[in-house]
Amino acid sequence: MVEFFINDQPVQAEDNQTVMQAARAHGFFIPYFCWHPQLSVPGNCRICMVEVTNEGQAAGSGWLDIACNMPITRGMRVLTDSERVRARRKETLQFITLNHPVDCGICDKAGECTLQDYHYEYNGSPSISRDAKVHATKHFPLSERIVLDNERCIMCTRCVRFTREVSRSDALGVVNRGDHSLIRPVEDGRFEQDAYSDNVIDICPVGALLSTRFLHKARVWYLEPTASVCPGCERGCTVNIWHRKNEWKLKALDAKQNARIDRVTPLENAAVNGPWICNKGRDLAQIFERARADQCLLKGRPVDLQTAIASARALIAAARRPVALVSNWGSNEELAAYRQALGERFTSFVKTDWQPVSGEPLEDDLLIRPDKNPNTAAARALFPPLPADVGSAFPADTDLVLVWGEGFSFAQLPPRARIIYLNSWLQPENGHADVFLPISVMTERRGHYTNFEGTVSAFEPCFASAPGVAHAQDLFAALVTRAVAVST
Amino acid sequence: MTGRKLIMTFPVTETSHLLADYQARGGYQTLAKALREMRPEEITKEVVASGILGHGGAAFPAGRKWGVIKLNDEQPHFLCANADEGEPGTFKDRWILENAPHLLLESMLIAAYALQVRNAFVYIRGEFDLPYRRLAAAVEEAYAAGYFGERILGTDFACDIVIYRGAGSYVCGEASALITSIEGRKGYPRNRPPRLTVRGLYQRPTVINNVETLANVTAIVARGGEAFKTVGTAKSPGTQLVSISGHVQRPGVYEVEYGYPLAKFIYEDCGGVLGGGKLKCIVPGGISTKVLTAAEIETVTYDHVSLTAAGSGVGSGGMVVIAEGTCMVRLLQILLRFYHHESCGQCTPCREGMGWMHRIIDRIVAGEGRMDDIDQLVRISKANDGTTICGMGDAAGYATLGIIAKYRDEFEYYIEYKRSRLDGRLEVPQAEFAHG
């Protein structure tokens, strides 16, 4: 431990910490663009300059240097907001904005842009240059997912270091010199292969790196994040799902617009995913915006929910040997509710709802796991997995099968068995079940997932369910056929 | 004559750069003495005692740099000769590489022995052709004669050398950018700490010295540090190779003993201004040092103390003589074009500031300047001072501030009348040249 002073307050710093790290750990704010807690220190933006006086030196005789690369010595005095520091920050911001187009009006980053924030905080004056700005490529496709606006780029090189140090694709580099420097892919197609490429959009401190999916889709101040868990694999990365704020709901357009997942960003979580997620997590909309089932069916005939539940109860009551296939997309709460309500009545197996898609990265040493389902660990802690030989799960006299969740073909079931099917998606099988009950998806309810390491993460509802869609948890309670105390 | 000499001690002939001639002049005997009679720390002690200052521009004491290297610390050390001589006006290292490559190699071997270096490097400027060929030939000769490789001169000392050719970037002459370039990456300078003598090339302790600094090591070890100190002045021991160019009668490389009168050097040894013109000012040590007017140099002696007191510096020894009648606005335009072109673009103040200053001076020269542009140039120069990763931001600022401080009236005239008071001339008029 080393003691030193920030703004005249004593601070205990760890050995080998820099001033930036110690200041952050103790709640002192020093602005930064290029520095990132998970990346190496390039010290190139020069905005984090602080005033330093060594022990024994007279006050005011200090020098200015960057906090992100400054080792701490005992008794040193650091000023983060002195007159000289503010003047230097203002000069640095004048340099940074010199060739920045300030096209905030059409920039997706506006509203959450570090440069905007710092400009209002530390500069605030109009440009003092009379010369034309340096022009550069305005729309350079780095990959199918990401476009680069070289004019907005402030050359912090976070994206370059991310591909070198975190995703290890080495896909990006800097070409040219001076104010003609440009971020460019090192070779064609390599960034396309980077399964974590979209993280550079988040770590870009300005609007230089933009998602093609989100490009000009929404202003961020109309959106709000909801904490959630990525169901893309058993890692269970915590994410923010961004959707329109309730007060900015669109009234004139299709209601579906209001239930749109605008974008997905990582929710920093040191226990699971750090500040990163993979590209599959960015594309949760592809999973959740498939056509939804919202109509109960009896052998394909639409009925109301009460009729469907009554039919299912009758089937369960009459069954002699019922078997159930449990979804590993069910939350911990749903799995517990299922076990409490139906666990004794049914012989239960955990089925695998999602198989890896061809071309999808199976596993790597950063985040991606081979099991592409979110809650396999919790489900298998309660019930055995469905055997590889599916037929062996169904005794010859199986007369009822409850299938919960997608990804299972009815052709594998004993031909005489009746089927109760709980699913969220509009699929042809729905009509083949004896009773079909549409259920909500995770973006419409609250719950928890347990990842492969046993870490439990919570997700919150983003949207309301469509009318006619029930939560699986409630359905299980309603399907209980033995006497239990049900609270009304 | 420009005082005593340590490096240019022999007449340059067709063969004076070859091994045979070098050996005939007593070459590689100092290496033999060092390897057989001295321990590594004794050599470093002599270099510290000599008080030699770096000749690359920053004038950092070489002995202090060497002293940081811990011997026997169970890790490889590296030595690199900085032959990326890119400072405009400077071509003194070229003389050593072309005419005394073996002096550099012998000195590097002694340094390698003193610093326990197994692998030494020479980072040579990409544009250098003859110097590269001469140095490469000298390395071949030295290997053939057993001065490099295993068991040098029958001792346990082993050393190999690699010549690494740069690609012509000014910034790669900065020590940390130089090693980044050797490592095969884009030549970006690195932040200190850590210093390169702690974590340099391939993350190992590395000593990087200018070619001329290293070339002096042989003389230091041969004479002894204290004896070396008797040359030059107390605070600036030794000599400086000065490459003088511009409007001067006899341009070239001169070895000047520190303490030699500057005016005498220019007016007598170099023959004064080209064509017998009047001196306007000089750039004393590469364009990154501040200009000194004709009046200012009258009392100055050529050493670190005197030049620093005059508000400039020895720098890299690249002296440019500027005759009366030269347009300083045009001159600054050329300097700023250079800095803009060579800014590596890594850190903000230099990346944006160099281009900004270049655009402003271009605008002034095009007749579209405004009076407050001069203050803007001063402001940008000051904002670059001490804020950048390497010294380039400061260097461009010094050059600009020096010229504007002393020739502000020319800038004001140019902006007011939209033309140069001196016809925008950079050359000495032909007529004067003819009868010079």
Keywords:
heterodimer, A: 488 residues, alpha+beta, 19% helix, elongated, B: 436 residues, alpha/beta, de novo design (two linked rop proteins), 3 domains, 44% helix, 13% strand
Describe this structure in words.
Chain A has 488 residues and is an alpha+beta fold. Chain A has three domains: 2-95, Ubiquitin-like (UB roll); 99-211, Alpha-Beta Plaits; 296-478, 3-Layer(aba) Sandwich (Rossmann fold), CATH 3.40.50. Chain A is 19% helix and 20% strand. Chain B has 436 residues and is of the alpha/beta class. The model of chain B has no long low-confidence stretch (mean pLDDT 95). The chains are: A alpha+beta (488), B alpha/beta (436). The interface between A and B is medium-sized, with 37 and 30 residues.
Briefly summarize what is shown.
The complex is a heterodimer of chains A (488) and B (436). Chain A has 488 residues and is of the alpha+beta class.
Task: Spell out the blueprint of helices and strands.
The complex is a heterodimer of chains A (488) and B (436).
Chain A: E1 2-6, E2 9-13, H1 19-25, E3 49-53, E4 63-66, E5 77-79, H2 83-98, H3 114-123, E6 140-141, E7 146-148, H4 158-165, E8 172-175, E9 182-185, H5 199-203, E10 209-211, E11 223-229, E12 238-244, E13 263-266, H6 279-282, H7 284-288, E14 296-298, E15 301-303, H8 305-318, E16 322-327, H9 332-342, E17 347-351, H10 376-382, E18 400-404, E19 418-423, E20 435-438, E21 447-450, E22 456-459, H11 472-478
Parallel strand pairs in A: 1-5, 16-17, 16-18, 18-19, 19-20
Antiparallel strand pairs in A: 1-2, 3-4, 3-5, 6-7, 7-10, 8-9, 11-12, 12-13, 14-15, 14-20, 21-22
Chain B: H1 19-24, H2 29-37, H3 40-50, H4 62-67, E1 77-83, H5 92-99, H6 101-115, E2 117-124, H7 130-144, E3 160-165, H8 175-182, E4 206-210, H9 211-223, H10 225-229, E5 239-246, E6 252-257, E7 260-261, H11 262-269, E8 279-283, E9 292-293, H12 294-297, E10 301-302, H13 304-309, E11 318-323, H14 328-342, H15 348-365, H16 372-384, H17 392-417, H18 430-434
Parallel strand pairs in B: 1-2, 1-4, 2-3, 5-11
Antiparallel strand pairs in B: 5-6, 7-10, 8-9, 8-11
